Amino acid sequence: MSFFKKIFSSEKKETLDKGLEKSKASFFSKLSKAVAGKSKVDDDVLDDLEEVLISSDVGVNTTLKIIDRIEARVEKDKYLGTEELNQILREEIANLLSETNEEDATDFVVPKNKKPYVLMVVGVNGVGKTTTIGKLSAQFKKKGLKVVLGAADTFRAAAIDQLQVWADRVGIPIVRQEMGSDPASVAFDTLNSAAAKDADVIIIDTAGRLHNKVNLMNELTKIKRVMQKVVPDAPHDVLLVLDGSTGQNAFEQAKQFTLATEVTSLAVTKLDGTAKGGVVIGISDQFQIPVKYIGVGEGIDDLQVFNKFEFVDSFFK
């Protein structure tokens, strides 16, 4: 299909190719076994392909969608050779991702008509939430945007300190209070401070506790309500950060957070150290939430804006 003829930025694409190496190697190893000795895509091949996709952390429901689409093509074309399976998978997965990720951003940008642009970041502890915030801040600053951070994860001193380290490293202001302070109060102070500084982007870190959904929901709702006293339509984006290396556990985290608050975009981290890259496909499809960023390395520039065509091209290259 024509969309695979897009020209990708070579440096970014090389990083993405490298970051998805483990996922790609694992997937194609399983796929090769599934079609070994077969020349035609038949029921046996489709059964084996279903197993390959599920074991690659694409998820059961998304896998069944993909299999149904391939079955429809087999029915239409009557004969599909196994050598064509790779291309068909590329096309159907890209089509699936297109349903949720309608437009591909090419850079770290925020809407010009939203100033300040308020981004609230959620996710459990350990998924790379604070690191993602730090890398995002660096990318926004590189674009000439004024960024202010708010350390509203006040339940862990380590979370506040880690965000401070990133603020110092990137060279941007941070609003923080003592551990145990009211998170909504931190968010309120951050928005007021940012307004005084004529900031373009405000990023609010929040606590990553899932043991009690009711408390989490109440806390996030309160943070939103308090922020809207300063910026009436805040937050403009609620970004859920998920650790791609946890595979199916990332699905469960997404489920819990989408029940607790309205999540509008996803960041999937740590894809470079895992063979579970298929989780990006499944989570985006199952929750109908666009993937905005992916982490494919430890460097600041290894947080990338997600592009479905680049992703699929790297996964199946």
What's the CATH topology label of the largest domain? Rossmann fold
The second-level CATH architecture of the largest domain is 3-Layer(aba) Sandwich
Q: CATH homologous superfamily of the largest domain, by name?
A: P-loop containing nucleotide triphosphate hydrolases
The beta-strand count equals 8
Distance between the termini: 15 Å
What is the residue-mean pLDDT, rounded to a whole number? Answer: 90
Poorly predicted regions are: 1-5
In short:
The chain is α/β, with parallel strands linked by helices. It folds into 2 domains: 8-100, SRP54, nucleotide-binding domain (Four Helix Bundle (Hemerythrin (Met), subunit A), Up-down Bundle); 117-307, P-loop containing nucleotide triphosphate hydrolases (Rossmann fold), CATH 3.40.50. It has 12 helices and 8 strands.
Structure description:
- Strands 3-2-4-1-5-6-7-8 form an eight-stranded mixed sheet, with helices on both faces.
- α9 crosses α10 (248-260).
- The protein folds into two domains: 8-100, Up-down Bundle (Four Helix Bundle (Hemerythrin (Met), subunit A)), CATH 1.20.120; 117-307, Rossmann fold (3-Layer(aba) Sandwich), CATH 3.40.50.300.
- It is of the alpha/beta class.
- It is built from twelve helices and eight strands.
- The radius of gyration is 21 Å and the shape is elongated.
Question: What is the fold's blueprint, element by element?
Answer:
Layout: H1 10-19, H2 21-35, H3 43-55, H4 60-77, H5 85-100, E1 117-122, H6 129-142, E2 147-151, H7 157-170, E3 174-175, H8 183-196, E4 201-205, H9 213-227, E5 237-243, H10 248-260, E6 265-269, H11 279-287, E7 291-295, E8 303-305, H12 308-315
Parallel strand pairs: 1-4, 1-5, 2-3, 2-4, 5-6, 6-7
Antiparallel strand pairs: 7-8
